[in-house]
Amino acid sequence: MIRIMARITARAGAEKELLAVLQDLLLPSRGEEGCLSYELFHNQDDPLEFVTSEQWRDQAAADAHLASPHVATAIARAGELLGQPPLIHRFTQVE
Question: What integer is the mean pLDDT of 42-71?
């Protein structure tokens, strides 16, 4: 299993627009083959910050997600709404 956590920071004043873009990713991402979970969080202490927490069956499923049309659309829509490039981290579970 692969877990991906992405920290996405909105440009000041663009929080609501960026939230809409990120919400549009939820259903199509959750419906992808190999998606175990896909969650979106909004930082209550910093209204500019959003975090996605994703679990994928394997690296191939995670790679397919990143290459999907809905992710490409979101990236294009989010471009000028971002305060900085997203920070994306991939994790494997340690027992």
Answer: 97
